[in-house]
């Protein structure tokens, strides 16, 4: 078809291309409506209602494969940062693609176990581990506990002695890396300061109930690939020290920090890190005579952020002269909290009018809560919208759902997954009001937690027979 003969079709193509980005290979437009892997978003919304989250399984799997392929070094065992999106359906995909689970709490350990991970495929790393978390992690014999401070090491040793068990540990080190004024890990809360690292290695190496299995570094939001290479040099220096101290290391873990693309800003890719990192690690191992360690990275945002969407409807407009404000049934507090925390930019797609020109400037796209901070987006050019039109916020597969709250007594939206076979599955159902309010209305401490009990019986057998595992809010006692 010659589009010059049909200028209105040519215009529609131009408008469509102005909205879509290459990082959404699953998105297309048919008859002016947004489709996801061939499924009409309008039809999905009619069936499930709005608002809702959607995760695209094909994109998650594609990114997992891509990340593993980016690093030539072997042995290589990537882990997924569960904190980014801990839905068990997503975790099952992670496990199926050969990744392990990097957890930050007792709850995330439970979710990983429910998703089919073995204890020896799970690490626990955070700044503070409660006695309950230490008890659970050491009893389960997870792959490793990431020790974040000398005090954390002391607490872990005390619990291991109490349980008379040996615990595998990684020491998390803050490598004091700086890049200009905006990036300085010495301002981060993560890890044992570099100047205390050798002391921590000596303590961990001599303790009877600890096995120092590896070193860990976490760079948070890493700004450019060179940061990983600097961390590599500093951490392998410490690995050499550990070897001289009689404790060769089995693992080197360089955390996460791989960015996702937001807005129109470019982000560095795993491929830009993988080749030079693998080559440098190979050279350092030979130079220092290190026993060949297993390399670990813990991507999160890169895996799920760009694979997630949020779908909501226009409910009303407020026009103040030239300033137009749009009200939606979505929101920040209950669905997309990132803009409340950092300067997050979501692309907003006019899912019902993808073939129309973005001729109208909306000063703000507001959410459904009674708070003036509830702004999903500001200053957006979109077509002339009407009540009932669908909007889609892109790139929200990481953190959005796990950080959403019940502010204003509102429910967190359900989550759908578009499966690789084209079927749609609800992987998080809508909340009930009973679930929202039961901690206030039923204030008596619960004497058991059926989910925890089932998991522990499955994975601990008789190891905790007649032993109590206490936790705030419940007391679990095995019969």
Name some characteristics of this structure.
Lyase, Ornithine Decarboxylase, Chain A, domain 1, TIM Barrel, nine-stranded parallel sheet, disordered C terminus, nine-stranded mixed sheet, 3 domains, 479 residues, alpha/beta, 24% strand, globular, 15 helices
Question: How much of the polypeptide forms β-strand, as a percent range?
Answer: 15-25%
Number of helices: 15
Low-pLDDT segments, ≥5 res: 6-10, 462-479
- Main β sheet profile: 9 strands, mixed
Any overview of this molecule?
The relative contact order is 0.14. The longest helix has 19 residues, at 226-244. The chain contains 15 helices and 25 strands. The strands form five sheets. Strands 4, 16, 17, 18, 19, 20, 21, 22 and 23 form a nine-stranded mixed β-sheet that branches. With 479 residues, it is of the alpha/beta class.
Précis, in short:
The chain is α/β, with parallel strands linked by helices and 479 residues long. Helices cover 33% and strands 24% of the residues.
Describe the secondary-structure layout.
Blueprint lengths: L6 H13 L7 E4 L2 E4 L2 E2 H8 L3 E5 H14 L8 E3 L6 H9 L3 E4 L2 H9 L7 E4 L5 H10 L3 E4 L2 H14 L3 E8 L3 E2 L3 E2 L7 E2 L3 H10 L3 E7 L9 H19 L6 E3 L16 H19 L5 E3 L4 H4 L3 E13 L2 E6 L9 H4 L6 E2 L10 E7 L8 E8 L7 E5 L5 H4 L11 E4 L5 E5 L4 H9 L8 H11 L7 E4 L2 E4 L2
Parallel strand pairs: 4-22, 5-6, 6-7, 7-8, 8-9, 9-12, 9-13, 13-14, 14-15, 17-19
Antiparallel strand pairs: 1-2, 2-3, 4-16, 10-11, 16-17, 16-21, 18-21, 19-20, 22-23, 24-25
